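All the exercises in this workshop are built on plain-text protein records. Sequence and backbone structure share a record, each on its own labelled line. The structure tokens are whole numbers drawn from a learned vocabulary of backbone shapes. The record below serves as our worked example for the rest of this section.
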Amino acid sequence: LSPGAEMGCFTFIKVMMILFNLAIFLAGGTLLGVGIWVKVDGESFIDIFGTLSSSVLQVVNVSYVLIVIGSILLVIGFLGCYGAQKESKCLLMMFFSVVLIIFIAEVAVAVVALVYTGLAESLLSAVVTPILKEKYGVDNTFTHIWNTTMTKVHCCGLNNYTDFNDSVWYNTHGTYPPQCFGASPPLAHPYLCGCFLQGCFDQILEEIRTNAGVAGGVAAGIAALEIAAMAVSMYLYCRLDEK
């Protein structure tokens, strides 16, 4: 290519890099805002987004996840946008490094999820169950999230009703949450009733498996964008040496 064509190509890619990372920056700000909203007022979030949101909220603390992801996107967007605008090799290299670390972490998580699915489920249960015992019936937002999910998804606890054994709720009321009993009235002793519903975790996993194709497509799309972003940042980084 002629010097003029090369400069035009460089300018075009630079502008695309700025616009792309500006979109990432704005998306990060949006996610950060939503995360703060969920943290402050989780009940209204459930009312707007429905059962699926409550299913996700009960397994992971979405507010913290959104805040962390939003903050990371803000940093990435700033490094990419400002680095391309100012033609800063340092910022472009930082952008490349951050995206590369995130990409490697995503690949590692995907491999662990595929190879060690049972271990991942056990670890999740070990983390969530103690929180359920401590916060259900104490934290109003947390309790509302679980009640909404257990009622609409027809499930009980994360694994099953035994998640509430020795919980604050059980110790206070001497029984399990009403949502665990289906159409029958709550009973203090679990072996007197065969109407306990299955755990919510199985239901959520079934939803994930049902939408695995969509989730895989989204993950592949994100990975492709990350690879493209790293390639463009390296192109700009190398071209700056020639200017």
Observations:
- The longest helix spans residues 3-40.
- The chain is about 80% helix and 0% strand.
